[in-house]
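Table S4 entry, glycerol kinase.
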Amino acid sequence: MAAFSSRVMLGPLVAAIDQGTSSTRFLVFNAKTAELLSHHQVEINQSFPKEGWVEEDPKEILQSVYECMERTCEKLTQLNVDISNIKAIGVTNQRETTLVWDKETGEALYNAIVWLDLRTQSTVERLINKTPGRNKNHLKHKTGLPISTYFSAVKLRWLMDNVDEVAEAVLTRRAMFGTVDSWLIWCLTGGKSGGVHCTDVTNASRTMLFNIHTLDWDPELCKYFDIPMEILPKVRSSSEIYGLMKSGCLSGIPISGCLGDQSAALVGQMCFQEGQAKNTYGTGCFLLRNTGAKPVMSEHGLLTTVAYKLGRDKPACYALEGSVAIAGAVVRWLKDNLGIIQTSTELEKLAASVGTSYGCYFVPAFSGLYAPYWEPSARGIICGLTQFTNKSHLAFAALEAVCFQTREILDAMNQDSGIPLTQLQVDGGMTSNRLLMQLQADILCIPVVKPSMPETTALGAAMAAGAAEGVSVWSLHPEDLSEVTSEKFEPQINPEGQGAYESEFRYARWKKAVQRAMNWETTEPISNGNGETSIFSSVPLGFYILGSMLMLIGAKYIAGHK
C-alpha cells in the first residue's frame, strides 16, 4: 500500500465493486491519477449440487460486498484518508449468472445459476433442433450470440420450469430477474424498500433477450423463450446515476457505473479506439476487440457484444469477443479436486521445473467448449500420457492449454477483422504467472503487454462511475487519461527456427486433442449408425442384456444334457 505524504491533497476518490466468479473485491482509486489506494477481497464459495451444475448463494454474494466495503473503509481510515472523498461507486460483475428474487420479501428464490453451469444442455439441444437447419446461430442477427448454455435466457427458463417458488412468484407478479449487477444495485439502493431494478447495456447483451441494434429488450426474443417482460430490469447506459447507497459506511453515495466484467476490463485498459483489444485471464479467458459504433458479426465463432455506452446520450460501442470457459478455473481444479498444488503460485514452480508437457495435452472442457466451437457436449480430456508423465508435466500442460485456447480465439479474431493484432494487452489474476505470460508470447509470436496495476476490471467500473453526469470527477478525454506503466513479454522463439516449428507442432497436437473431447456427453440417445437407436449404445445395459442371453442359452444347454 502506498504511504501518503500529502494525505489532504488526494482530491476526489471513486470506488468499485468487482463481483467475480471466485471472489468479491472493493477497490478505491484516486480519480485524478487512477492510483489504487486500498482494497479488500473475499472468496466466494461455489457449490456443485450435480454434475455440470454450478451455483452460488445470492446472500453470500451480497454479504461479501458489504464486508469488502467495510474493511476497505477501515483500511482507508488507518491511512488517514477521509472516506467522504469517495464521490461515486461503480459495479462490475461476472456476466450471465442468473438470479430471481421476490420483490416483496427481498429474498432470492433460488441460488444464483453461474454462467459456467450446464444443466440447460437438453433445453439448448431442444431449441436448436427446432430451428430451421438445426442452426445454433438462429437468433444471432438480433443477439450477436449463439443459442448456448452460457447465456441467461435458458437459465431463467430452467428456473421458471423447475423451481416452484420461481414459477409462483412469476404468476403473482412478485418475481424480479437479474444478473449479478441488477441484484447488487437493487439491494444496495434499498431492496424491497424502493430498490432500483436496472441493468446496463453490456450485461443485458449477454441474456439472449436483448436486441443489440435497438439496445432494448426484444418482445420476439422474450416470446421465443416464453419469458414475461415485466420481470426484466430496466436497461440503462454504463455510466449514469442509478441510485444512492442506502446503508453501510458509504450511505448516500451514488452508484453511477455498471459494466459486465469483460467490458469493464476493456475500458480499464483504455481500449477506446476501434481495433484495440485486451485479453483477461480470470476464471475463464476473454478476448475483446473494440469494433466501434457498428456491431460486426463474426464468421469464425466469436460473439458480437455491447462493449460500453458511457452516458445516456452517448453512442454504444460494440466488440467482438472470444470467450473461453476455463482458464484460472483449471488452477482451482488442480488445487481443490486433485490436490496437486496447495496454492496457485505453486503451479508456476511445478511447470517451470520441467519446462515442457512432454507430449501431454490437456483440454479443460469442464463446461463444454465455448469459442470458437460452441460445443456443449465436449468434456475435459488429458491425453498423451506415458509412464514418464508426472504432475509437473500436467501443470505445464494446464498452462499451455490456457495459451492454446487464447491462440484459437486470437486466430478467429484476426480472420474476422482482417487486421492481425501486433501485440496483446492482458490483465486478470493469472497474469501474475510470469511463465504463463512468456509462454503466451511464444505461442502467439507477438508481444504480451501487462499493466503494472493489474486491477483493470475494477478500474474500468470506477472510470465509468466517476465520469457519469452529475458526478464528473473522472475525465475520459484521451488527453486526460493517465499514462499506464506496463511490462512487455517478447516472444523468445525465432519465427523461422526449430522452436517455432515445435510450437506449431504442439498447437496442432492440442487441436487434435480438442477433436477427441467433442461429442462426449449428449442428452440424445446414441444412434447405431443407421439412424436407429441401439440398446447396446449404453455399455452397461448392453453387457447386462448380452450376459442374460448367454446365461439363458447356457441354462437351456445344461438342461438339455441332463
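Confidence is low (pLDDT under 50) at residues 1-8, 525-546.
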